Amino acid sequence: MRTLILAASLLASTASAGTFITIGADAVPAATAAAERDHAAMKIVANDGDVAVLDIDDNELANLSEQMHAQFHRCGGFMIHDSLAEALSPIQPLATRVEYSLDHAAAVTSVLSTLDAERLAGTIRELSAMPNRYYKSAAGAEASNWLAERWRSFATRPGVTVQLVDHGYPQKSVVLTIPGTTRADEVIVLGGHLDSIAMGGISSNAPGADDDASGIATLTEIARGLLAADYRPERTIKLIAYEAEEVGLRGSQAIVKDFQRAQTNVVGALQLDMTNFKGSDKDIWLMKDFTSADQNAFLVKLIDTYTGATYGFDACGYACSDHASWTKAGVPASMPFESRSKQMNKHIHTGRDTIAQSNNEASHALKFAKLGAAYAIELGKGSLGKGSLGGDRDQDHHDIPWQLVALGLLAAGSIAVSRRTIG
Ligand code: BES
Ligand code: ZN
User: Fold this and answer.
1) Ligand 1 proximity of 74 Cβ (cutoff 6 Å)
2) What is the mean pLDDT of residues 299-311?
3) How confident is the model at residue 299 (pLDDT cuts 50, 70, 90)?
4) Is cis: bond before 212, omega within 30 of 0?
5) Cα-Cα-Cα-Cα dihedral of 340, 282, 269, 326, to 10°?
6) Which of 75, 288, 337 to mutate to test the pocket of ligand 1 (most atoms within 8 A of CB)?
7) Which protein residues have a CB closer than 5 Å to ligand 2 (ion)?
8) 197 C-alpha to center of ligand 1: Å?
């Protein structure tokens, strides 16, 4: 757990310069120099050597973002907070709240066999054909409606809902809920960000095919696969397309706050942000920072057992996407990423972030769709509905001889964990 020490300067001062942000401590000298150059008000409120809290003039945020990009290759690289208290609130310890086990092989393999790279590529093409998905633009708002309609088309049974969540900007977050049967109060979140960004703001050309139409299309294919199989989880599953990630994780922070207010028990969160650019030798890279080591170990089991993909570990080095909002709230979160961060897609946040950079296909993202669907089913438990491929209630316990189930369990291993770590 991190504790930030309040600087004497803040205790003595009264007025705020503008907005409270948290930023990597290594970037503080660059931020200070930029603010001095621009004659912008800025105060270092706290710095624990790892993370710093700055109070900075609103008008300086765009310049700071540019500096972070030029000097640190971070595209923003800071988190925006509504209040000083929030910026200072220490990162919560992650309590492991669930036992991770692999015992729903029949349901997982049945759903995974229906996931399709061509459909996934089609969704990336449709999203990236929009002029941009900027959180303040009309096109960004339209993207929310478009996605809600697409997800609604999968919601063929009563109880499954799709909602638009308003955070005060034109773009809305989109939430698809598959209610749990017996443990509905335990919630699993699979998310990605709907917004895109490039120079030019609301009138920019920001296709964001990889960042993050790929993640949203991956979620979309997972939703289609789960619902087409009439999957009925024991725990509640929510698929969330966050608005406004690119401008300080705003959408996910607002969603997390809503969940905290409602005292919702979120037992796990998976973030899919950039899934379709294979920049490295291994397929799936698990980010070790701002994530749960225990849940990451569960993902490793899922990758090995179900996806046929290879994996490695890497780090962002800062709160690079919406998983950090969940981690901050104490929820075990993971961020499986498309490449080593050093070998990332260099075209993100420009008009060149198109599916052409991924050979006009989505075989890489399909691996993440398989991982996400396996995560949803093995954490959500439950069963596929009657009439679906190999589907009957409790098929894992009835359709397969118990000896095979036992063998499968032995092979897959059953992870029971009691402690947590922040990477
Ligand atoms: N998809 C990126 C995050 C990313 C980029 C992760 C490259 C790993 C490698 C995300 O949309 C993004 O741009 N995040 C911002 C930070 C955010 C807090 C504004 C960034 O990376 O600077
Ligand atoms: Zn981005």
Assistant:
1) yes
2) 98
3) very high
4) yes
5) -10
6) 75
7) 211, 246
8) 11
**Number of other residues whose CB lies within 10 A of the CB of residue 256:** 24
Taking alpha carbons only, the member of 164, 277, 159, 170 closest to residue 218 is 277
What ligand 1 atom has the least distance to the C-alpha of 349?
A: 13
Instruction: Tell me how far the alpha carbon of residue 322 lies from the centroid of ligand 1, in angstroms.
Output: 9
Catalytic sites, residue numbers: 193, 211, 245-246, 273, 349
Q: Give 277 Cα–ligand 2 centroid separation in angstroms.
A: 14
Q: Is the CB of 274 under 6 A from ligand 1?
A: yes
Residue nearest to atom 6 of ligand 1 (CA): 320
Within 152-276, strands assigned E span: 161-165, 173-178, 183-193, 235-242, 265-271
Q: Which atom of ligand 1 is nearest to the CA of 78?
A: 18
Q: Is the CB of 245 under 6 A from ligand 1?
A: yes
Q: In terms of pLDDT, which residue wins out, 398 or 277? A: 277
Ligand closest to 321 (CA) is: 1
Nearest-CA neighbor of 273 among 203, 180, 345? 345
CA 293 to ligand 1 centroid distance, Å: 21
Evaluate whether 79 touches 34 at the Cβ level (below 8 Å). Answer: no
Nearest CA among 408, 399, 389 for reference residue 231: 389
Q: Which residues of 16-45 are buried (b: 16+ CB within 10 A; e: fewer)?
A: bbbbbbbbbeebbebbeebbeeeebbbbbb
- List Cβ<8 Å contacts ≥24 apart for 297-304: 297/100, 297/415, 297/417, 298/100, 298/375, 298/378, 298/379, 298/415, 299/270, 299/334, 299/336, 299/371, 299/375, 301/100, 301/102, 301/412, 301/413, 301/415, 302/102, 302/371, 302/374, 302/375, 302/378, 303/371
Tell me which residue has its CA closest to atom 11 in ligand 1: 246
**411 pLDDT above the threshold of 80:** no
**Structure-token pair, residue 344:** 């990332």
Question: Does residue 344 line the site of ligand 1, with CB under 6 A?
Answer: yes
Q: Where are the alpha helices (DSSP H) in 93-244?
A: 105-112, 117-128, 138-152, 214-228
Domains and CATH numbers, the chain: 8-88 (3.30.70.240), 100-415 (3.40.630.10)
Calculate ∠ Cα 341-343-349, nearest 5°.
Answer: 75
Give the pLDDT of residue 47: 82
Tell me: pLDDT of 338 over 80. yes
Tell me the C-alpha distance between 239 and 151, whole Å: 10
